[in-house]
Write a structure and sequence with these properties.
By secondary structure, the protein is mostly helical. It is about 55% helix and about 0% strand. The chain contains 14 helices and no strands.
């Protein structure tokens, strides 16, 4: 992702926060003046959620410009509280860009057509055991849990249904790279915001945590992966900087899934 695009998208997230009714975080009465010296701007709002949040996309004192466009746990909690918002991809099983990038045969046929990718996933992909998101891998899920393997065998559609109806809420690990229980236990800010709500933890990883470089499971972290292997840093021109924030991590994750595990590389 280019730096200009990164700036535009992070500004858009901030401004959309205003559309939803969010005021600037530094306007709060409990803003610590020793930490935040930015002046108040705009209306103050009439309701506060949680403690003062340095990491909010609405906070001018955030050390990352507009939070790099990534909602903080309190930002997410606020939107959930007032809008009872349904999470995008509520079962965390399908991401069209991920699906197409992982399978050249599909990309050659569908290009970047997200609707066609989704139709393929529903009609054929899940039955074949293909993977369509970072958070869920049906093959891994069945092999991870003997109770599910005994119940479903290699029925990947049944595994997906279990994940949707029970697995997420139970805090089961849907893929080698993303474990909601580990994610909460390893991030005290998320644990404080979400408790043991594994669905909110997965949503945070999907919309914010991955872009922030947070480690999603004990077995794999994309930042740790790049730090371990100099050849990958060179090939992908890895910087972990804002100019290539998302691109670096997307390429690193894909390399791990497609090649790194097969090559016997270590993911953490």
């Amino acid at each position: 992702m280019g730096f200009k695009r990164h700036c535009i998208e992070s500004i858009a997230v901030h401004e959309f926060g205003h559309v939803l009714g969010l005021a600037h975080e530094q306007n709060r009465a409990d803003t610590p003046t020793a930490t935040c010296r930015e002046p108040r701007q705009g209306s103050n709002g009439d309701v506060t959620v949680g403690a003062w949040d340095l990491n909010s996309v609405m906070n001018y004192c955030n050390t990352n410009y507009n939070g790099n466009g990534a909602l903080s746990p309190v930002d997410i909690q606020t939107v959930q509280t007032f809008y009872q918002a349904q999470l995008a991809d509520a079962d965390f099983s399908f991401d069209a860009d991920f699906y197409l990038s992982l399978y050249p045969d599909l990309r050659n046929v569908f290009g970047s057509d997200h609707d066609a990718a989704l139709r393929h996933w529903n009609a054929t992909g899940i039955a074949e055991g293909r993977r369509a998101s970072r958070e869920f891998d049906a093959v891994y899920y069945l092999n991870k849990y003997p109770d599910l393997k005994n119940a479903f065998g290699n029925n990947y559609a049944a595994a997906l249904n279990h994940w949707k109806t029970s697995g997420i809420a139970e805090g089961r690990q849907g893929s080698l790279e993303v474990n909601s229980s580990y994610y909460l236990d390893s991030n005290t800010d998320l644990k404080a915001a979400f408790g043991s709500n594994y669905r909110l933890a997965l949503n945070h990883f999907k919309v914010s945590g991955f872009n922030e470089g947070r480690q999603g499971a004990a077995e794999f972290g994309v930042v740790q992966y790049f730090n371990r292997y100099g050849d990958l840093r060179e090939v992908f021109k890895y910087t972990n900087g804002p100019a290539s924030l998302l691109n670096d991590k997307t390429l690193g994750f894909r390399h791990w899934v497609q090649d790194g595990k097969r090559e016997g590389r270590i993911g953490n």
